[in-house]
Amino acid sequence: MNKIEHIGIAVKNMDISCSLYEQLLGAACYKKELVASEGVNTAFFKTGQNKIELLSATVADSPIAKFLERKGEGIHHIAFDVEDIVVEMDRLKAAGFVLLNEQPKRGADNKLVCFVHPKGTNGVLVELCQEIKA
């Protein structure tokens, strides 16, 4: 894993939360994106080398909606940038980690993604991210 790619934060209201984070970080949201396959709206902020991703549900049965119902607003996941997501997935499976995806899938911000089950990572949902090269 190369670096922390971003921290994902689940929010109930994207408009209110975007305004809050713009004030908090002193930076405007640089990208909003719908990931229809996951039932989620995303908004990205950058401060220095760090990125924050806000996530809000678009449908009641989405993973984010279920997370918000169980835990409320707050940190949802930590994402790590990887050079080759398939190699990293194979390495983690061989080490005994449980992956939530059998294959990488397209995520927000031009990334291939895969999630690692939080039961094997001390309760933290971990996301692997690989930039999709043109």
- The CATH class, by name, is Alpha Beta
Contiguous helical run count: 3
Mean pLDDT: 96
Q: The biggest beta sheet, please?
A: 8 strands, mixed
Look up the CATH topology: 2,3-Dihydroxybiphenyl 1,2-Dioxygenase, domain 1
By helix and strand content, what is the structural category?
alpha+beta
**Which regions contain 5 or more consecutive residues with pLDDT less than 50?**
none
Compute the number of strand runs.
Answer: 8
Pattern of helices and strands: EHEEEHEHEEE
* Envelope shape: globular
**Portion of residues within helices:** 10-25%
CATH superfamily: 2,3-Dihydroxybiphenyl 1,2-Dioxygenase, domain 1
Determine the N-to-C terminus distance. 21 Å
Strand order of the largest sheet: 2-3-4-1-5-8-7-6
Based on the structure given, which CATH architecture is correct?
Answer: Roll
Strand content: 35-45%
> What's the gyration radius in Å?
15 Å
* Tally of domains: 1
Pfam families: Glyoxalase_4
Protein name: Methylmalonyl-CoA epimerase
Family: Belongs to the methylmalonyl-CoA epimerase family.
Domain VOC: 3-131
How would you portray this structure in words?
With 134 residues, this protein is an alpha+beta fold. It has a single domain, classed as Roll (2,3-Dihydroxybiphenyl 1,2-Dioxygenase, domain 1). Helix content is 23%, strand content 38%. An eight-stranded mixed β-sheet has the order 2-3-4-1-5-8-7-6. A hairpin with a 4-residue loop joins strand 6 and strand 7. The longest helix has 12 residues. It is globular. The mean pLDDT is 96. This is Methylmalonyl-CoA epimerase. One of its GO terms (molecular function) is metal ion binding. InterPro entries: Glyas_Bleomycin-R_OHBP_Dase (IPR029068), MeMalonyl-CoA_epimerase (IPR017515), MMCE/EMCE_epimerase (IPR051785), VOC_core (IPR037523). Keywords: Metal-binding.
